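Ex. 9. Protein: Sugar transporter.
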Amino acid sequence: MENTEVAAATAKNNLEPRTLTFRNKIGYAIGDVGNNFLFDMGQLYLLNYFTDQVGLPSAAASMVFLIAKIWDAFADISVGTWIDNRRNIGKRGKFRPFILWAAIPLALLLIANFSTPNFSVTGKLIWAYIAYMLFGTCYSISNVPFGSMIPTMTRNSQERSELASYRAAGSNFGLMMATIAFMPIVTSFSTKGMGYTVAVLIFAVCGVACQWISYANIKEVYKAPAPKKFSKTELKKSYKALLKNKPLVALSIVNVFTFSAFNLKLAVQVYYCEYILKNTTAESWLGFFSIGMVFVSVAITPWLTKHFDKKVVYMMGCAIWAAADIAGFFMANSTFMLVFLTSIAYLGDGFTSSLNWALISDCVEYGEWQSGIRSEGLVYSAFTYFRKLSQAIAGFIPGIVLAMVGYVPNQTQTASALLGIRGLMFIYSAVMAVATIGVMFWLYPLTEKRYKNIVSDLTARRQKKAAQQLQPEYARISD
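Predicted structure tokens for Sugar transporter:
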């Protein structure tokens, strides 16, 4: 009787128990440090490697990103479906084994992307397509389970926000180290080609180590039984449920905006520092201060979400981001101004990146409440499907724009080319940040109050279902 009363009080007040230790949070953060050591090399430097080292035309190089990322998007959906329908779940859990076993293949494929053989242009393009598509598929196998784990680690809303902040901190630390350390390693060698190979090798090894440390320090608290084998009809219902999940649809749309803007800026800043500022060391300063500012937003996001809806904090971050980038287009003519204004922009972006993983976990609960179907892997992979599309956009647009404005590698650029680089760096992201505010305001339906009501209702449903399942057993005992 006492346990029933406690459960009822918990449901009434939405006080889901706190299940995470500090070790779990740090372990999850380190996992995303490893993810970024392995993943960010492609987003930051691969386009520049293709155009300035391998000698691929910028438009052709951009097509590699477009095709490979569209492929990755479908790979995410396939991996999510596979994970949700796994039946032979061992003692390591439903998600953790993927983090362990995918690490080394992922590292080897990363090295292959920055080790293009001296083929013809056609041969180099074929190598680029195959290597990057295989890398993306392997990354899906590693990253979809990693992101899908949050609902199994905790059901406490505030704790999910905290865990998302830790993950964002790990992600941005990995990104900061990649931005600060990678190019100095590259330029320390007599040829940039050799420098790229050594730098990628170092980050690949560190990435594997971080993923294995993460595997050892995170756990799945809520272990669901292996699901029954779904029929095609049931799978169709699951996919239809995704389309009815309004928060998921809205969050996916805004991530196309924000994530494409973020990744495009990362790809273009190499060109901005070299050709507009004529100071390649500016990129290290940019990485240290601007990515460092994300840690500030990550640190204060849990406090903000205690006082405001996550939706409001998300829009506030985009407003800061847009204002700083508009100013940057006109004023970032020195290393100091670029670093200062980009730091403010990344402060705003930090709110969105911190909250994405908490919001997607909320979408899992909403989906179960709305349709009766709970599918962490499918929801997360649908979300990452749109993030991969945003990465395709971020890789495709710079190459096309650079070709249109007459960019020539390793040469003094024309005024048209310089204006194109400046616009890519600031205007695109400012427009996307404003568009995000509009979508979140009009289309994202979950407020904190509504989310708590949904969780409370789900808890009551589960208790009712459990009671109904026990009734036949009680009847048998009575007989």
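Check your answer against this statement. The CA atoms of residues 176 and 292 lie 7 Å apart.
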